[in-house]
Here is the input.
Amino acid sequence: MEEITVNLGPRSYPILVGAGALRTVGRRLSALAPGRRTAVVSDRSVLTRYGPTVAESLRGAGFSVTEILVPEGEAAKTLAVAERCWDDCLTAGLDRTSTLLALGGGAVGDLAGFVAATYMRGIPFVQLPTTLLAQVDASIGGKAAIDHPRAKNLIGAFHQPLMVVVDPDVLSTLPDSEFRSGLAEVVKHGIILDAAYFSDLEAHVAEIISKDLPTLERIIAVSCRLKGRIVEADEREGGPRATLNYGHTVGHALEAVTSYSRWLHGEAVSLGIVAAALIAERLGVTDAETVRRQVSLLRALGLPVSFSAPAPHVIVEAISRDKKARDGKVPFVLAPRIGEFRLVFDIPADLVASVLAEMQKGAG
Ligand SMILES: NC(=O)c1ccc[n+]([C@@H]2O[C@H](COP(=O)([O-])OP(=O)(O)OC[C@H]3O[C@@H](n4cnc5c(N)ncnc54)[C@H](O)[C@@H]3O)[C@@H](O)[C@H]2O)c1
Ligand SMILES: [Zn+2]
Here is the structure.
């Protein structure tokens, strides 16, 4: 079992990565949690598969367990669902010393984190991520949120978990499209933070695609360490954490203009990475080979690298409405070389539009 520590002073916590890790949750929580009551928040498809393992582990360690069932996917991240969770916490008799555990993808994690952050002004919280995206990204860093009808993730809090337990075994039941979507964040970590990691991914595409367990354990642990390091440097997202936005400026715009229905998040990020790479090349910030390696790896992992609609000007317009915009300027993260990043603020809209048009020609 790989153990990574996120060092945040009094809010430091371990990330445990290893096949079978879900069976150790109860024992590990015993050493950390003040109270004996717990509630596990999950959706039906995850709870059916992995709820019994977690509940058994918790009960075996002397905890009482209440299961709180929430809708699948983004439908969980509403005020109405959060209110039902607060209600269930009260009914289960959870107090300030009780622990809330999120068992599921990023949506369940975001919702449960929000409930844990707000119930009685904040109670202990544990992340048990079951999608690749949640394992390498959403479960680390303490960002929790629900959606506002007019904007995703608008209502939220920072609430760091007591621990994150990552069991790569559960990825065997994850649909392939969801798995690939998570790989976009893995590739992103390599591009902006770690050239050796990027080369490792290039060299093991076949093992990754076939979900070879030792390979998954290794790459998930590296990604968790990289994300953890960024969170340590910038817990509340005022500086370095913005670099994790690589590929997300265009990615978020693509998701928004298609009402989150055309691409999974990681697929939109893959297109956003290609756009960022081409923008960097046009600006003379990077070279053709660095662009080629990014595009090839994404394509080899089954992620999209070109698209046919919507029109570039529609996407550029959506970028200008990005919530990361400051004084009307949207920051772009660019990669001068594999393993390096640079934040650039003043990229002309017509350059972005021209790169998007080039990607659409590729879709032919
Ligand atoms: N807090 C953060 O820092 C952060 C970072 C990135 C993303 N997010 C959020 O994460 C959410 C997306 O998360 P996601 O990509 O994990 O998708 P998701 O949480 O919507 O889950 C996708 C689907 O996979 C199913 N599933 C989960 N694990 C499974 C398993 N092991 N086997 C079979 N099916 C399984 C779920 O039931 C669900 O239907 C978004 O709401 C996004 O805003 C948060
Ligand atoms: Zn992302």
Remarks:
- The pocket of nicotinamide-adenine-dinucleotide (ligand 1) is lined by residues 43, 45-46, 72-74, 77, 104-108, 110, 130-131, 133-134, 137-138, 141, 143, 153, 170, 173-174, 178, 265 (CB under 6 Å).
- The chain has two domains: 2-173, 184-363.
- Residues 213-233 form the longest helix (21 residues).
